[in-house]
Amino acid sequence: MFRKSHFNVRKFIYDGFDKDMAKVVFEREGIWDCTTCSACLNKCPKGVDTLGFVTGLRQLMVEDGRIPPPIRDALKSVSTHKNPWKIGAEKRSEWAEGLEVKNISEGADILYFVGCTPAYDARLQKVARAIVEILKRAGVDFAILGNEEGCCGSEIRRMGDPWTFEYLAEENMEIFKKYNVSKVITTSPHCFNTFKNEYEGADFEVQHYTELIASLIQEGRLSFSREIGKTITYHDPCFLGKQNKVFDPPRKVLTSIPGIKFVEMDRSRERSLCCEGGGGRMWIESEDSEDRLAKIRVGEAMDVQAEILATACPFCLLTLEDVVKTEELEASIEVLDIAELVIKAL
Amino acid sequence: MNKGFEPNIVGFACNWCSYAGADLAGTSRIKYPPNIKIIRVMCTGRVTPAFILKSFQSGADGVLVAGCHPGDCHYIAGNLKCEKVMEVTKRLIDILGIGKGRLRLEWVSASEGGRFADVVKEFTEQIRELGPFLEKSQG
Amino acid sequence: MEPEEIRIGVYICHCGINIAATVDVEQVRDSASQLPNVAVSKDFKYMCSDPGQALVRSDIEENDLNRIVVASCSPRMHEPTFRNTIQQAGLNPYCLEMANIREQCSWVHEDKASATDKATKLVSAAVAKALLLEPLEEKEVEIKPQALVMGGGIAGIQASLDIADAGFQVYLVERDPSIGGHMAQLDKTFPTLDCSACILTPKMVEVERHPNIDLLSYSEVTEVNGYIGNFTVKVRKKPRYINMGRCTGCGMCAEVCLLKGRIPSEFDLGIGKRSVPYVPFPYAVPSKYTIDAERCLFLTKGKCGKSPACKEACTADAIDFEQKEEIVELDVGTIVVATGFDLFDATEKPEYGYGLYDNVLSGLEFERLVSSSGPTQGKIVVGGKEPRDVVFVQCVGSRDKSVGNEYCSRVCCMYTAKQAHLIHEKLPDARLTIFYIDVRAFGKGFEEFYDRVREEGVRYIRGNVSDIIKKGDRLMVMAEDTLVGEPIDVEADLVVLATGIVPRVDVKELMRLLKISQSPDGFLLEAHPKLRPVDTASDGIYLAGCCQSPKDIPDTVAQAKGAASSAMTKMAKGKVKVEATTAFVDAFICRGCGRCVEVCEYGAPELQEAGQGVLVSEVNDSLCKGCGACAVICPSGAISMKHFKNGQIFSQIEAVI
Questions:
Q1: How many CB atoms lie within 10 A of CB C654?
Q2: Is residue C277 part of a domain?
Q3: Which of C32, C39, C328, C638 is most buried by its number of CB atoms within 10 A?
Q4: Contact, C418 vs C371, CB < 8 A?
């Protein structure tokens, strides 16, 4: 059985009809288990906004102050430091030291929006550096916001704080306007999704970085000189695949790398299994202790004899790699971001 | 302020969709303001700019033309023809100083009784805000 | 008529208290009596009743009235009633005008004063128009006693038989090489478990033998022009490359074909294979072979081996690679549309793994598997083995906003129950599970059949399946058992998806061909959903079967009989009256610019020579539907609409403000 949680959206909605909403929410387990992957939303044959319902419920809890401490801390950190990792804003661009990356105040075609996790997390900083290297090699005119960059607000909203989200969105849009930003690429599908679909009035184009790399390869501006002779499979991040239907560009990038044997897992594309990184799950574990979905996912990758499990999302990378470490599978499989693979082959 | 001003509104509704929708509002007893008087045509494609001008000339403060949703016209595409004609008519009445806000084109299906009532309520209020037409033109 | 001679009778209906409670009918009556040319103004409790109508008739006679205004309910309700009334009193039925003071006045307004005021204005508008009304003659056209039936499934077959039995000529056009439609693909039918082929083939044979039915198989309708009673239809007879007169149906050509067993059979949905020359199924009607021109090596590449084996093998010398398509023109009086449906493509629901896993089948594919005439002779075998666990998933592609089909396909609950029963019959040890949202067993014998299937041990679990994934070489079906509120996983060797019924993929072409409309759900639009389910808005064109909306065989047969009856009623009368509110041209003003011809969807206006190279537009009353588009576009104001002339509408506008 692939069951994880007592979380049953239908039960919440059903009971909400009769009982006082707040009592229902506070009595039930599982409200923080939801990863906001949107599988329920895509599936519902009656077009019920199940996802909106969950975030609405969480909002009630946030209003009442009844939030688990890790979530409360993450939210507070965003208000104070503009990132959920409780690290100061002045350290936000330390990852770029020595790379000579342009600041957007100098003007550029594309703004590379790094994101909180790639900016601060040591493991993900490698991905940010890889992306910078790739863009330089392709001769792309890009820049970063440096320490002015602040959280996109995606997970904040999903954790039940739409007020901070709106504040962040307004601020970000103002900053983009200030620097005449017309096109943005992101490391994270979460930033990508929220810029594209939730920033009302946004007048800039936004792409996930894999989309840009795919077109750079198509245009011949990137070419590979080295081989990676391994079997690779790709895990579709929910916020990139399921929610925005971006399935092919990451695959295009991977299959362009010489020497690769590309295999698909059974559950790929729309059927991809959520890694449990979204919706605040980076900061809170599920109360159930059955198998983590990330563990099942790594198992599925090994089922198709993949030596490398590639992905394109900071949260997916962290949760999947965590499984490899705790289950001691380093000898069998490696989790890498697409950017890291591209860099190896350039 | 336009207190106490009751707008005089003429409506053109097509026999197959909007007139039926208006009838449905009646069968469902949904209330809306009595300012609108409806003239039945077989298709909104019949509505010529002359009808609109005549309406304002005779003292109407607003004109509502209601037809079938695109794709549903009983005569295939009469409503789309009407849409094009209304676009030009709106510009014409703007130039003439009547103001294109006084002419409205809406799609109402035979099953949209509630929607018909909503449209009429909204339009009546809109015209009330704009004020009387003839008084305006008389300076 | 000179204006002074017009004498109008005005009647204000109380409609009990429906109007009178809100509108002061006496006041309206009195105001109306003051209007010019109003000779009589009365109020009455129920105008549509016998005494109400009698009042109008006697007033017409006693007071020499020649125009009548009835202020009551909607004209959509009673215009025909009152037109009839005045016609009985000797007046032309078009000398009636109605004012809608119920649905559009008393029922929607609360303030009595303003409602009465509005009613007064509506009545004076009606009176103003009545003053300008003219008597109109409804034209009569003849109806040819021939019918075209489009589609040779059970709906088309039944309609054809009924019409032909009544003595009318029927042209049945079917695009596939054989008639039979989807019904021919079914095994046993619910709830009686009648063998589909057994009940269908006698009817198919009857169609072929019937002296009044001209079966044009492997043909398509390409053009339809005209109007009720006088449709001209062009039919394209596709070349079979086999001479129908000579072919004996022996099958030698298929035996010797180089590509034998290599081409997926459409009838078997790709599960079975066929040759290039083929009959779709053993009991096809006509039972003649057809060469698949797209797969034939000789026809596509010009060469097949040393020479086409089929031609050599045919002892009747029926193979004719030179055969060309033929265009046939038919004149018919009525058309019955029975074009059927397509099956929902389950690849649109990727979570079910259809197309990815070999052991996930659509409802119809399973039907072919379980049919004794099917590719496995009815043996239920998956991956070389008999399945131990079978799961059925209901509502695939139906009742589902996410794929754009909000409607219920009506047949799936029952066909799933039937399929479960069939497996149980053949594999009594198999464990069967059906995941459902609701079970719709509404018809005669349906609920009893559903009970029987459950008593046989089929497990019904209420919950929409969310995912189907691979587990080894089996499948794992994941859902929530909503009756207990717990998630449930079931392993299966075979999953059957109850795929729904969708409109034919080329429904839009069909609509353009016949100038009929589509309902919001995509199926063809009937004239009235309750009272006219087999008519379309176009006179003379009728609908039968699933092309109008999903339904099972008994309902299809009933509707086909209904459509046939409607067609026959018209054809039996021999003549039909065409609505008189058509366009007319003042030839004197018309300058022959042709804009009316361009704008008309029905081809009603035509430019005719009026001597000395002068072109003038003339309207064919039978084609004109009275929409008025031409009147708007005419730059000279030469063309106008009877009963909706500019002057008439102007008078309404002036009076209503």
A1: 16
A2: yes
A3: C32
A4: no
Rounded to the nearest 10°, the torsion over CA B107, C22, B62, C133 is: 80
Residue C647 forms part of a structural domain: no
Interface test with C, best of B6, B23, B57, B68 (most C CBs within 10 A): B23
For domain A224-345, the question of CATH label 3.40.640.10 is answered with no
Among the candidates C88, C119, C138, a domain finishes at C138
Q: Is A269 on the interface with C (CB under 8 A)?
A: yes
* Among C627, C644, C653, beta carbon nearest to B10: C653
Chains that touch C (3 or more CB pairs under 8 A): A, B
Residue of C nearest to A2 (CA): C489
Q: Which residue of B has its CA nearest to C628?
A: B46
Half-sphere CA count of C545, side-chain side, radius 13 A: 30
Look at C518 and B71 and tell me if their CB atoms are within 8 Å: yes
First-residue to last-residue Cα distance in chain B: 16
Asked if A touches B (at least 3 Cβ pairs < 8 angstroms), the answer reads no
The chains in contact with chain A, meaning 3 or more Cβ pairs closer than 8 Å, are C
Q: Do A47 and C482 touch (CB under 8 A)?
A: no
Examine the pLDDT at A31 and tell me if it is beyond 90: no
At which residue do the structure tokens 């020579």 appear?
A: C609
Comparing CA positions, the residue from A196, A310, A190, A193 lying closest to residue A253 is A310
What tokens does B16 get? 């197959």
Which three-class secondary structure string do you get for C278-334?
ECCCCCCCCCCCEECCCCCHHHHHCCCCCCCHHHHHCCCCCECCCCCCEEEEEEECE
Would an 8 Å CB–CB cutoff place B80 in contact with chain C?
Answer: no
Half-sphere exposure of C5 (CA within 13 A, CB side): 5
Residues C491 and C476: beta-carbon distance below 8 Å: yes
Per the CB < 8 A criterion, the answer to whether C215 and C297 are in contact is no
Q: Residue C616 belongs to what domain range?
A: 583-641
Query: Considering CB atoms only, which of C76, C114, C626 is closest to B23?
Result: C76
Distance, in Å, from the CA atom of A132 to the CA atom of A126, rounded to the nearest integer, reads 10
Strand ranges in A222-272 using DSSP code E only, listed in sequence order:
231-234, 261-263
Question: Residues C556, C440: one domain?
Answer: no
CB < 8 Å from A in window 478-497 of C: 478, 480, 482, 485, 487, 489
Its ipTM equals 0.94
CB contact under 8 A, C652 and B47: no
Half-sphere exposure of residue A202: CA atoms within 13 angstroms, side-chain side: 25
Q: What angle do CA C98, C102, C103 make, to 5 degrees?
A: 100
Q: Are C309 and C381 within one domain?
A: no
**Is B26 in contact with C103 (Cβ distance < 8 A)?**
yes
pLDDT in tens, A99-112: 999 999 999 999 99
SS3 call for A113: strand
Domain check: are C440 and C511 in the same one?
A: no
What is the pTM assigned to this prediction?
A: 0.84
β partners of residue C360: C495
- Angle formed at CA C245 by CA C244 and CA C249, multiple of 5 degrees: 60
What's the pLDDT tens digit per position in C609-657? 888 888 999 998 878 889 999 999 999 999 999 999 999 999 999 999 8
Residue C146 Cα, gap to closest chain B Cα (Å): 26
Using 70 as the pLDDT threshold, list the residues of chain C that sit under it.
Answer: 1-4
With both helix axes pointing from N to C terminus, report the angle between A338-345 and A209-218 in degrees, rounded to the nearest 10.
30
Measured between CB atoms, does B38 come within 8 Å of chain C?
yes
- The confidence score (pLDDT) of residue B139 equals 37
8 A C-beta contact, residue B66 and residue B36: no
DSSP E strand stretches across chain A: 110-113, 142-143, 183-186, 205-208, 231-234, 261-263, 308-311, 334-337
pLDDT in tens, C148-159: 999 999 999 999
Subunit partners of chain B (3 or more CB pairs within 8 A): C
